[in-house]
Design brief:
Strand content: 15-25%
Helix content: 40-55%
Distance between the termini: 41 Å
Structural class: alpha+beta
Strand order of the largest sheet: 1-5-4-3-2
Mean pLDDT: 77
Largest sheet: 5 strands, antiparallel
Shape: rod-shaped
Number of helices: 9
Length: 467
């Protein structure tokens, strides 16, 4: 093989000369359904708030212009009429009263007065135009006269020009800070409501996702959903999932019971056949072949039982060194098998000791059957492991001929047999399927990869036990 499967981790020692298999699959960047719903609702509500504020301000502008112009014009006309129809003594008292009570000051307008027109924004310009239309063409609206700021209105009384100074707050829309306060309050309430609505919408989907994950792991009891929800569509989905979980649980129980019953019923006649073979067959060679066939049938029955084991396991602390030593012990006494291990001492993983021993026994057996060196005929098996973060990475490789890349993903399928180069021995086709199921039950990952120097490597990722 010229190309190797690539994965984001390496195991030691480098003498294994295999590239790691794809145990890690990095999902694309994505946003959860809750946040997507929240952002969409928030954008919708924010757009509605901004549109409402703009509409309200637009509807407020024209009435405020008319109202302000009318009030200012009335103030000027009343002041003009009061000054015209009062005598000189009463006029002084009137001017003082207007200044004290209404904050309106009237002063003669001199030709040398310096003023700045009140045209800072569209509102002030509109009010100035309407005041000029109501009070006459000689009307002047200023925001500062001789350095004194305020709302100055220039008018005439019997041809004499005057200034009327009043409070500028009589003219103006709602302050910007008021709008910001209202906008901030509406935004906070809208975002809170969006979060609550998104959570309410996504809660059934989150429960369904959890139930599906437990159902996938074979934990049928934990996958039950509430059938008393108020929403009819969600209630129907929950009922359907619960019925499916019950049916799958029943099927799984029937499958395990059937396999166990068949295996039990087959072992009894096999035992009688073995006894009759030993007693009635005179030819030693024929007796030996018949006994081997019976043992092979027994081994096949064991494989079926291993494959039918329950999916749910309670992980515990397991010494990887002891498990691999026990699994490789029979192979170490085979003259046609060479096993080399490189495992740090006291490597502890989370799993099931019996299942792990069965896993490595199956892998070693698979390497002995299909991974023999094509030149020497010896099955050379290398096992290495190392700890990385919260995981223990394990690699077991042989030095055989390997398999074609398109078959790598099919080797773990039940009853699948590889090509002729790896099928010289008999078997059930369940060994690697049993390995993958067992590793998955223990919360790990399993994958296969070819080596550039020949041979097949099994990569295992198991949870590391905390100290």
């Amino acid at each position: 093989m010229n190309e190797e499967s690539r994965v984001p981790f390496e195991t030691q020692p480098t003498g294994l000369e295999t590239a790691p298999a794809p145990l890690e699959s990095r999902p694309p960047r994505e946003v959860s359904l809750f946040w997507r719903t929240f952002f969409l609702l928030a954008m919708l509500l924010l757009g509605c708030i901004v549109a409402w504020l703009q509409t309200f301000r637009a509807l407020e502008f024209e009435p405020r212009v008319l109202q302000s112009a009318q009030q200012l014009a009335s103030l000027v006309n009343l002041s003009r009429a009061a000054l015209v129809h009062s005598d000189s003594i009463a006029r002084v008292s009137l001017v003082k009263t207007l200044a004290d009570e209404e904050s309106v000051r009237i002063a003669p307008r001199e030709p040398t007065d310096q003023y700045r027109l009140y045209d800072t924004d569209s509102l002030s310009r509109s009010v100035s135009e309407r005041l000029s239309a109501r009070l006459g063409p000689g009307t002047v609206v200023a925001r500062e006269v001789n350095g004194t700021p305020g709302l100055w209105i220039g008018f005439s009384i019997d041809g004499d020009p005057y200034w009327l100074l009043t409070d500028p707050s009589r003219l103006g829309l709602v302050a910007g800070t008021t709008w910001l306060i209202w906008l901030g309050t509406a935004l906070v309430l809208s975002l809170t409501g969006a979060a609550l609505i998104a959570r309410l919408i996504n809660r059934p989907l989150k429960n369904l996702s959890f139930a599906a994950s437990r159902l996938r792991e074979g934990d049928f009891n934990a996958s039950q959903l509430s059938e008393a929800v108020a929403t009819s569509e969600i209630r129907e989905v929950n009922i359907g999932v619960n019925r499916m979980a019950q049916r799958l649980s029943k099927i799984e129980q029937d499958r395990a019971l059937m396999l166990a019953g068949i295996s039990h019923d087959l072992r009894t006649p096999l035992a009688r056949l073995r006894l009759e073979t030993e007693m009635s067959v005179g030819d030693p060679q024929a007796r030996e072949h018949m006994a081997a066939d019976i043992e092979q049938v027994n081994a096949i029955i064991d494989k079926f039982l291993d494959y039918a084991r329950p999916d749910h396991l309670e992980p515990e602390r397991v010494s990887l060194n002891q498990v691999i030593e026990a699994a490789t012990f029979p192979a170490s006494h085979d003259p046609n098998t060479s096993v080399t291990t490189s495992i740090p001492p006291d490597t502890i993983v989370m799993g099931d000791a019996t299942e792990l021993q069965r896993v490595f026994a199956n892998l070693v057996e698979n390497a002995q059957r299909y991974g023999r060196d094509p030149v020497t005929g010896v099955a050379r098996i290398d096992i290495a492991a190392k700890a990385k973060d919260d995981w223990v990475l394990i690699k077991l490789r042989d030095h055989g001929t390997g398999v074609s890349p398109e078959m790598l993903t099919q080797l773990t399928q039940p009853f699948f047999r590889g090509d002729a180069s790896r099928s010289s021995a008999t078997g059930t086709g369940l060994g690697l399927a049993i390995v993958e199921r067992a590793i998955t039950r223990m919360g790990g990952r399993f994958a296969l990869a070819n080596s550039s120097t020949g041979g097949l490597a099994a990569h295992i990722k198991l949870p590391r036990a905390k100290a």
